[in-house]
Amino acid sequence: MRDRGLSAERSLAILSGNDRERFQLALGAAYAGIPYAPISPAYSLVATDYGKLRDLIVQLTPGAVYAADGALSALALDAALPADAELILGAGVHAGRR
C-alpha cells in the first residue's frame, strides 16, 4: 500500500459490504499505518444522488478506492471518484479507469 503512494494524507476508501477482501484491505491498511474508511455500499449501490458519497470522498482525499464490483458501482464511481485516485476492483471492470 505504501508503494502505491497511500499515506495519512492519501487514505484508502472501501466501498464494499462485509466480505473477505474488505477485511484483508482494512487489516493491511491498519498494519501499514494507513487510514482507511469503510463506506456503506448503500452510498454507491442504492442511492441515485451521489452527493453524500462525493462529500465523503472529498473529505477523505483517498489515494485509492476499493469497490467490490466495478460494474455495479460504475455510476457512483464516475460521480465521486477523484481522477488521481487509484481504483481497485474485487470483480468486474470499469471502463476508462485502470
From TrEMBL:
Domain of life: Bacteria
Name of the protein in its database record: AMP-dependent synthetase/ligase domain-containing protein
